[in-house]
Design brief:
Layout: H1 3-17, H2 19-48, E1 60-68, E2 74-76, H3 80-89, E3 94-97, E4 99-108, E5 111-121, H4 124-128, E6 132-135, E7 146-150, H5 151-158, E8 168-171, E9 174-182, E10 198-203, H6 205-209, E11 224-228, H7 237-251, H8 254-263, E12 270-275, H9 276-281, H10 284-315, H11 318-326, H12 331-368, H13 382-403, H14 409-417, H15 430-462, E13 472-479, H16 482-493, H17 499-511, E14 516-519, E15 530-536, E16 541-549, H18 554-557, E17 564-565, H19 570-574, E18 579-583, H20 584-590, H21 596-599, E19 610-615, E20 632-635, E21 644-649, H22 658-668, E22 672-679, H23 680-687, H24 689-723, H25 725-733, H26 738-774, H27 783-809, H28 813-819
Parallel strand pairs: 5-10, 7-9, 16-20, 18-19
Antiparallel strand pairs: 1-2, 1-11, 1-12, 3-11, 4-5, 4-8, 6-9, 7-10, 8-9, 13-21, 13-22, 14-21, 15-16, 17-19, 18-20
């Protein structure tokens, strides 16, 4: 058997014979490699793989045109009619289309399916390049009565049978005829996960052009797409603003045009244009970059730990190397043998990494939530496997080179000729200490970012919101047709509770035992709200704010304190007194120079009502990093809406579900549909799911970083102390106290601690601000948290030095001398 083969088979045997070396390598390197491979697989899919169902990607460009209600709160401007006019004016640039998606439930042959409902213009297949598998094209004259289904839904619901065409499906309690089957299209911009079961609802663009203008300030098309012609000219922001201005002035009523002008700050629209893939990925690019930096940092820390372990292992084999070099082996041949005997362990680490990456990818829908597009298409592809092999081969080569960096033929022969006492102490440990300094610096940098993100996520999840939800539920429903919507609007214009409200409140409290309707409106936690505008032409004071309905029991039910003034009474409501309560944000805007107590009794600047109380600014959208909620005016006048909402409180421990009252509701209120009952605590959980998941991931990364740093320091201390065992034994035998020896070892480790954490702190402070400019998800730098972090890391590192050192020092010195 050749020496090369023997080295390789020896490496296979060492997997089992040296578990103290092989197990840490396979597990530590394998698991951290798995995290790296997961990010590589995500990057490969999102950045390089063709987009499913969008073969025209290279020719597509997207525009996002929004109306700014405030600095952070914006709404889309375009709707289908406006897109049709825009297409006509800019057809020379290409073909314009739009598609948006949301989750929905459909019924096919009494079987329920959860689908993505794609709302798109009639030219969408031409623009995207998506294939119509069978049936009528989407550009038919009157598509309102029809829907198109995806290939996956065709397979699951109809088993690929042609009889699907012409079948009836129920969508949003309306019946539609299936007109055709379209290939699965997953590469669509969405706030949720794209389901392969898809239903397409098409709007005929030319017909939309002839419809009357809605005069609405906002549209429902977040993005419009253009299939560019050969010139590929990009519209400038000024061109789009000028077109929007002309459109509003020519098509809106004078009152609506004036309101739009005020809202948009004289047509200062928020406009962005991106390639189709760039728009699809959105902020996930920053997330992937952050993940890649984090997992590569963890992999480097694990590699540095293992490298110190390898150096210690091969230093213990110095006599073996001396013999081989003395017999004529070259240093490169020695490194080749070390490479081959390490290859089996590193190969197993690669397999462990691939397996763990596969499991992590399966968990991505839970871990990433809605933060990553194309989740269903992410897999361990060929580039990821190649990356795993290249990383492992590179690490094996680096380890083999560095493990023998201190091998010197002359010094090894001297060791053979010596008595052997203190041989280990003669080894050069400079490399190990330099590696440890790098590891501590890297740990400090990683911990800085992870702790800042952890604090941000913790604040979003567990921070003060200003209210207590209790066991509250929200019941929503909507009129079954437009006629009833008009009746509802007329009731709301009377500024009193409608007959529907009083009847519904009585129905709820009589059919749900021990329930109490708090308010016939939404609670403090709700994504739906009514926006009002006000402008005083004389003072040029303008304001956008949220109008929220409340009554005498609203604040007490949710334990919202009054900062100043007093709550409204039932008698004041019945007497129709013009009284409002505002939040602190609104109070500061209306009267910035007055204290809260001085504002009480003042006239509201947006109405004739008197300000009777001031409450805290509530966090009604927890889990949203951008607090784009507007200042709030609490009013006893109901707000106009196309749906009814009731917030009720149940006793602790009691649940309320839709099925408990759905049948009675349908029998008593046949003019309303889509009854939904949601626990506000569940709504809170959904809103904060992303940050709760992020918090656990960040905490896990933080703990792994600390553990890896602690293991590395402890391992180096153990190796250093063992190498100096003979010296320490002599010192103990001559009367040195154990406490003195501990200080002696600490003094030796102190420079590594100071240098490593000092460099890490410097890079963290100055580098974090630079990263923050490019990665918007990073929060502001927190100096206090950074100081606490460094103190904790210093404490952990000191423990990692003292504990293994004490184990060596507390041993019998005579036994150590005999072993040497």
């Amino acid at each position: 058997m050749s020496l090369v083969s023997k080295a390789f088979y020896s490496g296979i045997g060492r997997v089992f014979s040296l578990p103290r070396l092989s197990v840490p390598l396979i597990l530590t390197l394998g698991l951290t490699l798995g995290a790296v491979l997961t990010v590589i697989a995500i990057s490969s899919t999102l950045f390089f793989q063709p987009l499913q169902g969008v073969p025209n990607e290279d020719k597509l460009h997207t525009y996002s045109i929004n109306v700014p209600f405030s600095d952070d709160f914006i709404v889309p401007f375009f709707e289908m009619k406006r897109l049709a006019h825009f297409y006509e004016d800019y057809s020379a640039l290409g073909e314009w289309a739009s598609i948006s998606t949301q989750t929905a439930k459909i019924s096919i042959n009494n079987t329920q399916y959860e689908v993505n409902k794609h709302k798109a213009s009639s030219n969408i297949l031409t623009v995207l390049g998506s294939k119509l598998i069978k049936g009528q094209d989407v550009n038919i004259t009157s598509p309102e009565r029809f829907v198109w289904i995806s290939n996956s839904l065709w397979q699951s619901a109809f088993s690929n049978k042609n009889s699907a065409l012409g079948s009836i499906i129920q969508l949003e309690e309306k019946n539609y005829t299936i007109a055709g089957v379209i290939e699965d299209v997953s590469a669509i911009k969405s706030t949720g996960v794209i389901n392969s079961n898809q239903v397409w609802k098409i709007s005929n663009l030319p017909q939309k052009k002839s419809e009357p203008e809605s005069n609405a300030l906002n549209g429902d098309l977040e993005n419009i797409i253009v299939l560019q012609k050969d010139n590929r000219r990009i519209l400038t922001d000024n061109e789009i603003k000028e077109w929007s201005k002309r459109y509003v002035e020519n098509n809106f009523t004078a009152e609506a045009a004036g309101t739009f002008k005020m809202f948009s700050k004289n047509f200062e629209l928020n406009i962005s244009n991106k390639s189709y893939r760039e728009n699809l990925l959105g902020s996930s690019v920053s997330l992937i970059v952050t993940l890649l930096v984090t997992v590569v940092g963890l992999l480097l820390m694990a590699a540095l730990n293992l490298l110190n372990l390898f150096i210690a292992h091969y230093q213990a084999r110095s006599k073996e190397f001396a013999i081989q070099l003395s017999l004529g082996a070259s240093l490169n041949k020695l490194r080749l043998l070390i490479f081959l005997e390490n290859l089996p362990c590193f190969s197993l680490a690669a397999m462990t990494g691939l397996l763990s990456a596969g499991w992590i990818i399966k968990l991505l829908p839970i871990l990433a939530g809605n933060n990553l597009p194309l989740l269903a298409t992410i897999s361990l592809d060929f580039p990821t496997v190649i990356a795993a092999l290249l990383i492992v081969m590179l690490l094996t080569l680096i380890f083999s080179l560095l493990a023998t960096i201190d091998v010197n033929k002359h010094s090894l022969v001297d060791n053979l000729n010596s008595s052997g006492k203190g041989i280990q102490a003669q080894n050069n440990q400079t490399l190990s200490k330099v590696l440890m300094v790098l590891q501590l610096s890297l740990a400090s940098i990683l911990l800085t970012s992870s702790v800042m993100l952890a604090l941000q996520s913790y604040e979003e999840v567990f921070g003060e919101v200003g209210y207590t939800l209790g066991n509250s539920y929200q019941i929503t429903m909507e009129p079954i047709d437009n006629k009833n919507k008009n009746i509802l609007a007329e009731h709301l214009e009377t500024k009193v509770l409608s007959n529907h409200d009083t009847t519904m409140m009585t129905f709820i409290e009589s059919n749900v035992s021990e329930s109490k309707v708090i308010v016939p409106s939404s609670g403090p936690l709700n994504g739906r709200f009514t926006i009002q505008t006000y402008k005083n032409e004389d003072t040029n004071f303008s304001l956008s704010y949220e109008k929220k309905y409340f009554n005498e029991s609203y604040f007490s039910a949710f334990k919202i304190p009054l900062i100043a003034g007093k709550n409204i009474t039932k008698e004041q409501i019945e007497n129709d007194e013009q009284i409002v309560i505002v939040d602190t944000a609104m109070a500061k805007i209306m009267y910035p120079k007055l204290s809260f107590n001085e504002i009480i009794g003042k006239k509201s600047r947006v109405s004739d009502a008197i300000i009777q109380g001031i409450v805290p600014t509530l966090k009604s959208l927890p889990g949203h990093l951008k607090k784009h909620q507007l200042p709030i005016v609490y009013n006893v006048e109901p707000s106009s809406s196309n749906y009814l909402t009731y917030t009720i409180m149940m006793p602790e421990g009691k649940k309320l579900t839709t099925s408990m009252i759905e049948d009675k509701f349908k029998a008593q209120f046949p003019l309303f549909k889509n009854l939904e009952i949601t626990a506000l605590n569940e709504t809170w959980a959904e809103m904060t799911q992303m940050h709760r998941t992020s918090l656990w991931i960040i905490v896990t990364v933080t703990l792994l970083t600390i553990i890896l740093a602690a293991i590395g320091v402890a391992g180096l201390t153990q190796m250093t102390t063992n190498n100096r065992k003979y010296e320490l034994a002599v010192r103990m035998a001559t009367g040195a106290k154990q406490s003195l020896l501990v200080r002696f070892i600490l003094k030796d480790a102190l420079w590594m601690l100071v240098l490593g954490l000092g460099l890490g702190f410097a890079f963290s402070v100055f580098g974090y601000e630079q990263l923050q400019k490019h990665i918007t998800m990073l929060p502001e730098f927190n100096g206090v948290a950074m100081s606490i972090l460094d103190l904790g890391l210093i404490f952990i590192v000191l423990l990692s030095v003292i504990i293994p050192a004490w184990r060596v020092i507390s041993a019998d010195p005579m036994q150590a001398l005999r072993e040497e």
